[in-house]
Amino acid sequence: MNRFQRLAVATTTATFVLIAVGGLVRATDSGLGCPDWPRCFGKLTPPPNLHAWIEHSHRLVAAVVIVLVALTLVVAWTTRQSKIIRWASVGALLMVLAQAILGAIVVWAKLDSESVTLHLATALALVALMELIAFRSRWAAEAPRERRPRPFARLAMVGAGLTYAQMLVGSTVTGHEAGLAYPIHVLIPDLSFSTAQIQFAHRVLAILVGAVVIATWLVARRTQRAHPTITRLAGYAAGLIVVQIALGIANVVDRLSALTVVPHLAVGSLLWGTMFALVLHADRFGDAVERDRTEPAPVATRTAKESLTTYFLLTKPRIIELLLITTVPTMFIAKRGVPSPWLVLTTLFGGSLSAASANVINCYLDRDIDSAMRRTRRRPLPAHRVAPEDALRFGLVLGVAGFVWLWATVNLLSASLATAAILFYVFVYTIGLKRRSTQNIVIGGAAGAVPVLVGWAAVTGRIELPALVLFAIIFYWTPPHFWALSLRYREDYEAAGVPMLPVVRGPIETSHQILYYTLLLVAVTLLMYPAGQMGMIYLIAAVGLGGVFVWRAVGLWRDVSGQRAIRLFSFSNQYLALLFLAMAVDAVIHVQG
């Protein structure tokens, strides 16, 4: 390691120390220990006061970091480092100066939550930039060539991005004094309070970050054995996330003691730095995926209209119709009348973005399956009308946009639920179950039931018993609906190697399971009558539509044919639409009556 590399590592380490000391400042309520800036009570040295000295130590460490970053810039240019290092060092200096200004704003704004969170966001970005400088000083950029997709690097990027977001949400928790919004044993609190919403989002995101980081480690062990540094970094990250979650629990148990709060921030920062280092190593050294030489390269669309059509088809618009069928009636029931048109439109738009995100990422992950099935081989990815990397980016952008939109226009609970549905659909169903279990659609169907929870939360700000019954209705509706389709296209799934129930257990057993789940579905729909305080309109519709569904399922049991299966599939769509329409009509008429 040469002198410049040691300097870059020292500057990165000092930035980590700066973040940890900042955590000590917040944990001890010393943010205004020096109420003015840059002086402390009008002097260069603080008075003999513990809070003043803690805050002053943070400023001293910040000054050291500024000097180190400036020295990194000078050495980078005088020793003629690579272009990316020189300009990254310029960016680092600008960033650390902005960080100092933000520190002053934090004091002047009397610890305003938004300014504190932005202060942390800049510090974490500075860590990443210094890691990039240190990494590139050791390993130069690869020679220009055709880059092949690196799935593991993308997985690491997702983990790093979620970790960064979690750090900022954690800062928001502290800024809004939401750390003790509700006890640790409460899974879903009363989310009518903003502090509970923020804390709930923090806990949900912690679970998601933990799942992705652990998954990254497991994938690294399986696919990156030729690169020990990558597997070690992934292992470090997995260990840090376990410690981080344990410290988060300790924070609540110890009622935000500085003994747990400071390590919580420090370990979180180390986790972020480790994940970003993993991204750098995976992108530089990780195994590339060779493109099948027999597979033609994707052909770019020629016109704007063709391009829009292609990306629109990627979202699987017919599946998004489920959002319209279930979310709007749910909002009528939650309101016990007609909800605000603006709230309905904003909820549908944000929910559509989230559903589209899940569908696009599913298309990306299942493009090999889609190309092997006659029913799906004309979709944009297997037909090579869009590059896989572009589709993945499109899906990720839609997911982020859906979360931001719902949080900004509806509420945080709806945004969190919609995003959780994306992650469940992608990681649990598409990656975890679809290619491994006959129960894939049973468990994975839970993702399609989340829109009713989003609609209910949009109106009430919380999840109540009727919303859970609505969730159960869609959950039990999904298996007979999708198994009927898979009966019709059993050969396709068999050719693609997907263990759908008709492929593994045969058509007769599948028809039996369809009938069993249909009976369960009808029973659950009747629960909505007392749970949702529904009237006779709904009860008559539930009994009548349920009777027809059972009759058609019995017919399929007696005669398992592709024609009967596709008829049952088509009716299941009509059944769900009419059932939820009856709910909405009943809710409006019941209130008016």
List keywords for this structure.
593 residues, mainly alpha
Walk me through what this model shows.
- The protein has 593 residues and is an all-alpha fold.
- Helices cover 77% and strands 0% of the residues.
- It has 22 helices and no strands.
- 45% of the residues are buried.
- Mean pLDDT is 84; it is low at 143-149 and 288-302.
H and E order: HHHHHHHHHHHHHHHHHHHHHH
Q: Ranges with pLDDT <50 over ≥5 residues?
A: 143-149, 288-302
Number of E-type strands? 0
% residues in beta strands: under 5%
Rg (C-alpha, Å): 27 Å
Query: Looking at the structure, what is the overall shape?
Result: globular
Q: Overall pLDDT, averaged?
A: 84
Helix content: over 70%
Largest sheet: none
| DSSP helical segment count | 22
What order do the helices and strands come in, and which of them pair?
Layout: H1 3-27, H2 50-78, H3 83-108, H4 113-138, H5 151-175, H6 194-223, H7 228-253, H8 258-285, H9 304-314, H10 317-335, H11 341-365, H12 367-372, H13 388-409, H14 412-433, H15 440-444, H16 446-460, H17 465-488, H18 490-496, H19 501-504, H20 507-531, H21 536-558, H22 562-592
